[in-house]
């Protein structure tokens, strides 16, 4: 573990590097950034550029076309230089847009933070106020505010800021509510921090990315709205130039001098477009979910790229229903592929139970998911080995046939049925759906079978419970439904991934009994993945111990438990406290860790 | 032996309040009249299923929830008296270790800043003393010195739990409420953290209220055990007696359900 600590430093810097890299990988966002930087530079350098005074009128020179002498972009109806007005106007528009965003972000985030953290009456009052702001049509409210305050650029800025406050307040409140219930907030309170200190030093840093993302996506809007108000004559007042007011003044000349209105229009387009593209890019980079690729749609079957496609080996064990040989699954990390499991070989006979045991990160779940190509891909790739089900290499099959195997021949039972059951469908429907996916039966017949399955997995009063929703059931009952779904198509193999870890011990004992009975009745082969030696001892015939992606020891359960050969297995078994040992347990494990640091 | 915590007829009901339109919301009776005492230098374990009210008791003891009725005395002082003196006084008397160590550390703060808070706010030490105390604390929980500059996500579950324990120790409270401190950890890490807790208890003269659902873990660390069932404490006694002669049907069920390493079938 100390080794792992020593290597974390370069990872941090590479993560930071990759933020920029990720942004530049997104061509649109990179383009947006370049355009935006160019526009901002131009606007910021306005006082230094050799351009005429934007407000100097020269009626004799009015409505010069583009590329005329001394006026690159021509002049407007008062003979003012359009290029100069454009650059100065862009400066004003950007400044107003940014300030409005800053004000809206500051006030909105503050309201969101306070109401999300305080909850109760404060939350109610603040949020109903926000609701009232939102109840008015957007632009109408801005118009009303300007009407009250009077036209002018500063008042337009206030109006736009006020109109956008709800946007920030609601977003930030949602995140804050989630954070306020987190344990680190409780921990800070127990460390003696006051509520204000917790809000601003514990919660705020975690909300900040969301505020930045929201700002980056709203600033374009704000510029557009400023331009809108100025266009209506409520923002910038003559002679001050502003993209919106330039557009408004040019509107009347649209037919005889279209360039007067089209040029500021194009500038608004370029500005808002570049900001929005960049904003989307920034959001994608900062959002951890998008970054981890969670929202990219995984392939139906894990990508298979076996280096040497293994030669068809002669059928080894005839009785084996599942035979895994030299399985290797890797994950893509940047350009490199890092193997998560290596040289995994085991076999499972009909009616047998094999336990796959290991600590977190040992690769036991990846092994289970690899068998039917269920590892999310990207980033997972199966890079070697064979998985034979009844003598047939699954990984060589076409995608459709692999999908047909899932649920029919091989079924999975997962750790937390609350996350695998659909919350909006009744449990009976979900079991029936599992049946109809693989078998051509009618609705009534599927329901009848679902009921029979529920009775079989020991749900009391199944006829009444068939129309229950998952949240109406206890954890143990939900796991029984999960098992019923696994049994729906009479599979030969059940792969149970930590099926009892989320359950109380008394419930765990009953679920394990159920699995044991089903195995005997139906001759099921069971691959049980767990971290608990107690569970293995109770149900498994054989056990394979995994460590760092490899099987370090395998054998009959009783044999491994009594005479573990590998040091790691010995240590694991010694660390399991058992009832009846009392305080002797600590004395027994003390020498195992003597002198060693974690 | 004097008592560290005395709890009498503690009740906590969630909901059940009058709503805006005159109805009453659904009431959940999480804790129904529980009494027990944690003695000085003792480890009292509370076991029970999820939803039995054991975590609610723990959260009330450290002031994260307010009891509906009943009385609590901590270190001889009454709960209301302590509350009146402010959360600071509370934190100096009793500290809490959370189940999920990673979630209990703010992901955006270095360990240095996390450990700094209780030392500054609860003990009022100056910067030099704080730096020295931080090194001592990391030493006590057997973590390397460079831990301070790192962020929580750089640590494994077991290491994060050591850091969380260090933070609880920083307040120099003599009573620790440990809410499922090892449930989220792998067995070998679990054994190490249990050993650490055992060492610290002797070193700093601590009293533990140890909340867990794992009977075998409880038996190995506790002096006395209380069994919670549906918000009530159905049985309380010396660990050795309770596991040898469980009186309540639920306790017997718990004990028979506990997995053992003896293979069920030959």
Could you explain the architecture of this structure?
The complex is a heterodimer of chains A (598) and B (266). Chain A folds into four domains: 19-50 and 71-292, Orthogonal Bundle (MetI-like fold); 298-309 and 316-409 and 491-557, P-loop containing nucleotide triphosphate hydrolases (Rossmann fold), CATH 3.40.50.300; 422-490, no CATH class; 564-597, no CATH class. In chain A, 55% of the residues lie in helices and 13% in strands. Chain A is built from 24 helices and eleven strands. The longest helix of chain A is centred in the first third of the chain and has 37 residues, at 82-118. The termini of chain A are close together. Mean pLDDT of chain A is 84; it is low at 1-17. Chain B contains ten helices and ten strands. Chain B has a single domain (3-18, 27-256), classed as Rossmann fold (3-Layer(aba) Sandwich), CATH 3.40.50.300. In chain B, β4 (69-74) and β5 form a beta hairpin. Chain B has 266 residues and is of the alpha/beta class. The termini of chain B are far apart. At the A-B interface, α1, α8, α9, α20 and α21 of A face α3, α4, α6, α7 and α8 of B.
Provide the CATH top-level class of chain B: Alpha Beta
* Beta-strand proportion of chain A: 5-15%
- Can you tell me the number of structural domains of chain A? 4
**Unreliable stretches covering 5 or more consecutive residues of chain A:** 1-17
How is this structure best summarized?
The complex is a heterodimer of chains A (598) and B (266). Chain A has helices at residues 2-6, 8-25, 27-44, 82-118, 120-135, 138-149, 153-180, 183-190, 195-231, 243-251, 259-286, 288-291, 364-370, 399-405, 417-420, 427-438, 443-456, 462-465, 475-487, 505-522, 533-539, 557-562, 567-574, 584-589; strands at residues 303-304, 320-333, 336-349, 353-357, 380-389, 392-393, 410-413, 493-497, 525-530, 542-547, 550-556.
């Amino acid at each position: 573990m100390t080794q792992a600590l020593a290597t974390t430093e370069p990872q941090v810097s590479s993560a930071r590097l990759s933020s920029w890299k990720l942004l530049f990988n997104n061509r649109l966002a990179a383009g947006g950034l370049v355009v935006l930087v160019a526009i901002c530079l131009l606007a910021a350098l306005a006082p230094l550029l050799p351009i005429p005074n934007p407000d100097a009128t020269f009626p004799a020179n009015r409505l010069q076309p583009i590329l005329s002498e001394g006026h690159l972009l021509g002049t407007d109806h008062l003979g003012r230089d359009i290029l100069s007005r454009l650059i100065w106007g862009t400066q004003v528009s950007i400044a107003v847009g940014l300030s409005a965003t800053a004000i809206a972000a500051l006030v909105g985030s503050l309201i969101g933070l306070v109401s999300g953290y305080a909850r109760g009456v404060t939350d109610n009052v603040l949020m109903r106020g926000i609701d009232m702001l939102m109840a008015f049509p957007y632009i109408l409210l801005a118009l009303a505010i300007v009407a009250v305050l009077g036209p002018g650029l500063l008042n337009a800025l206030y109006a736009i800021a006020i109109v956008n406050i709800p946007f920030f307040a609601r977003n930030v409140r949602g995140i804050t509510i989630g954070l306020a219930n987190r344990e680190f907030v409780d921990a800070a309170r127990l460390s003696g921090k006051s509520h204000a200190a917790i809000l601003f030093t514990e919660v705020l840093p975690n909300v900040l990315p969301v505020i930045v993302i929201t700002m980056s996506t709203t600033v374009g809007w704000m510029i557009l709205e400023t331009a809108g108000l100025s266009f209506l004559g409520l923002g910038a007042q003559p002679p001050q130039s502003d993209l919106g007011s330039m557009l408004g003044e040019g509107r009347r000349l649209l037919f005889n001098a279209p360039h007067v209105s089209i040029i500021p229009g194009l500038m608004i387009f370029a500005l808002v477009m570049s900001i929005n593209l960049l904003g989307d890019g920034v959001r994608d980079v900062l959002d951890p979910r998008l970054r981890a690729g969670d929202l990219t749609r995984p392939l139906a079957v894990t990508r298979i790229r076996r280096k040497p496609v293994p030669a068809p080996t002669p059928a080894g064990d005839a009785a084996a229903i599942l035979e895994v040989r030299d399985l290797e699954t890797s994950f893509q990390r940047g350009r490199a592929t890092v193997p998560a499991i290596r040289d995994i070989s085991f076999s499972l006979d009909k009616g047998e139970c094999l336990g796959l045991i290991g600590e977190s990160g040992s690769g036991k779940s990846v092994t289970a998911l690899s068998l039917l190509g269920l590892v999310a891909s990207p980033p997972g790739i199966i890079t070697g080995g064979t998985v034979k089900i009844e003598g047939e290499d699954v990984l060589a099959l076409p995608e459709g046939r692999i999908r047909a195997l899932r649920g029919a021949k091989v079924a999975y039972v997962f750790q937390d049925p609350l996350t695998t059951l659909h919350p909006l469908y009744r449990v009976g429907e979900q079991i029936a759906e599992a049946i109809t996916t693989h078998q051509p039966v009618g609705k009534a017949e599927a329901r009848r079978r679902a009921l029979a399955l529920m009775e079989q997995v020991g749900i009391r009063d199944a006829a009444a419970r068939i129309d229950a929703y998952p949240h109406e059931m206890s954890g143990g009952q939900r796991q029984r439904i999960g098992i019923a779904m696994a049994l729906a198509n009479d599979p030969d193999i059940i792969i149970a991934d930590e099926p009892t870890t989320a359950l109380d011990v008394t419930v765990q004992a009953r679920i394990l009994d159920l699995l044991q009975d089903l195995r005997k009745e139906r001759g099921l082969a069971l691959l049980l993945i767990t971290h608990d030696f107690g569970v293995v001892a109770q149900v498994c015939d054989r056990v394979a111990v995994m460590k760092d992606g490899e099987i370090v020891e395998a054998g009959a359960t009783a044999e491994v438990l009594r005479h573990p050969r590998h040091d790691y297995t010995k240590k694991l078994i010694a660390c399991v406290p058992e009832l009846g040992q009392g305080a002797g347990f600590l004395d027994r494990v003390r020498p195992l860790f003597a002198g060693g640091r974690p | 032996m004097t008592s560290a915590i005395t709890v009498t007829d503690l009740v906590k009901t969630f909901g059940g309040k009058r709503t805006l339109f005159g109805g009453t919301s659904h009431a959940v009776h999480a804790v129904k009249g529980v009494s027990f005492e944690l003695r000085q230098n003792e480890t009292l374990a509370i076991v029970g299923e999820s939803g039995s009210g054991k975590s609610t008791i723990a959260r009330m003891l450290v002031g994260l929830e307010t009891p509906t009725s009943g009385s609590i005395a901590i270190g001889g002082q009454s709960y209301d008296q302590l509350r009146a003196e402010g959360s600071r006084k509370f934190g100096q008397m009793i500290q809490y270790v959370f189940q999920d160590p990673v979630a209990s550390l703010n992901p955006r703060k270095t360990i240095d800043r996390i450990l700094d808070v209780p030392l500054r706010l609860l003990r009022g030490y100056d910067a030099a003393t704080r730096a020295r105390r931080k090194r001592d604390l990391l030493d006590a929980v057997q973590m390397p010195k460079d831990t301070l500059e790192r962020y929580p996500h750089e640590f494994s579950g077991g290491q994060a739990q050591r850091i969380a324990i260090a933070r609880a120790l920083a307040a120099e409270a003599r009573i620790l409420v440990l809410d499922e401190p090892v449930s989220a950890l792998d067995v070998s890490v679990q054994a190490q953290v249990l050993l650490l807790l055992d060492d610290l208890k002797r070193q700093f003269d601590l009293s533990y209220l140890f909340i867990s659902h794992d009977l075998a873990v409880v038996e190995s660390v506790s002096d006395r055990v209380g069994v919670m069932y549906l918000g009530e404490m159905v049985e309380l006694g010396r660990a050795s007696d309770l596991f040898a002669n469980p009186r309540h049907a639920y306790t017997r069920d718990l004990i028979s359900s506990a997995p053992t390493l003896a293979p069920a079938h030959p």
